[in-house]
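User: Please fill in residues for this 256-position structure.
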């Protein structure tokens, strides 16, 4: 607890201040419409009552996000390493990478609906499109930015084939790969909520949209808070995994 407060003391104070401001405005002023902006006590009660439905929505959402994101990891990292190491093929296809990567994934929604047999498979495809490019391009960039001394040292000690890949190329490019993964993970939640709000029968985004339609804003805010908690926990876990995988960079920073 002491370590947590030492790291997040100011974040905690800001959160407490915002909560206090919310309580004051909703309970002691008439600045906000109480229907749209219910007090924290009402939202907490709604949150507790809806927790089972929220957890069911979480499971449904992960059924879309996890397959799409895992597919992006496999093809994004695998493809990025291949094109990063093969200049000729990368030069041929790079104009296509630069053309398609900035396109919003929502542009592909009509085709996903038309081509895939179910909402779930279409959503997984959209999530894949949304999360693939940051991982793919980050991996290519990671390979291209490997310092020349690394290649020279690998050649000197005779690293080839699998050993060269596992002991030099992958570790050296991992920081930028993980930066791309982190960007994709954050973007995945944005696209997931958006997709669910317009077509899903269940899920974290669907929960918010459903209760918005019935103007039950206590449940809408409960859903927003639940989504925020899920995203926060996911990103904290990812950062811990990233820190563990990049342990040598932490040692280098401590040495400096």
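Assistant: Residues filled in for all 256 positions:
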């Amino acid at each position: 607890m002491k370590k947590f407060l030492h790291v997040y003391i100011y974040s905690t104070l800001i959160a407490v201040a915002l909560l206090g401001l919310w309580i004051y405005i909703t309970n002691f002023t008439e600045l906000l419409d109480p229907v749209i902006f219910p007090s924290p006590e009402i939202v907490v009660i709604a949150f507790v009552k809806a927790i089972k439905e929220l957890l069911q929505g979480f499971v449904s959402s992960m059924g879309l996000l996890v397959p799409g994101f895992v597919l992006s990891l496999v093809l994004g990292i695998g493809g990025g390493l291949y094109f990063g190491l093969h200049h000729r093929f990368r030069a041929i296809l790079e104009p296509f990478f630069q053309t398609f990567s900035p396109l919003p994934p929502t542009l592909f929604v009509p085709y996903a609906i038309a081509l895939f047999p179910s909402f779930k498979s279409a959503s997984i495809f959209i999530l894949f499109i949304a999360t693939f490019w940051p991982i793919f391009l980050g991996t290519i960039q990671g390979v291209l930015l490997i310092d020349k001394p690394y290649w020279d040292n690998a050649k000197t000690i005779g690293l080839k084939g699998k050993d060269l890949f596992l002991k030099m190329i992958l570790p050296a490019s991992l920081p930028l790969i993980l930066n791309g993964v982190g960007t994709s993970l954050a973007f995945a939640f944005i696209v997931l909520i958006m997709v669910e709000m317009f077509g899903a029968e269940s899920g974290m985004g669907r929960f918010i949209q459903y209760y918005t339609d019935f103007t039950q804003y206590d449940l809408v805010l409960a859903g927003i808070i639940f989504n925020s908690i899920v995203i926060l926990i996911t990103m904290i876990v990812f950062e811990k995994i990233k820190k563990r995988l990049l342990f040598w960079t932490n040692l280098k920073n401590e040495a400096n």
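For context: The chain has two domains: 1-32, 36-255.
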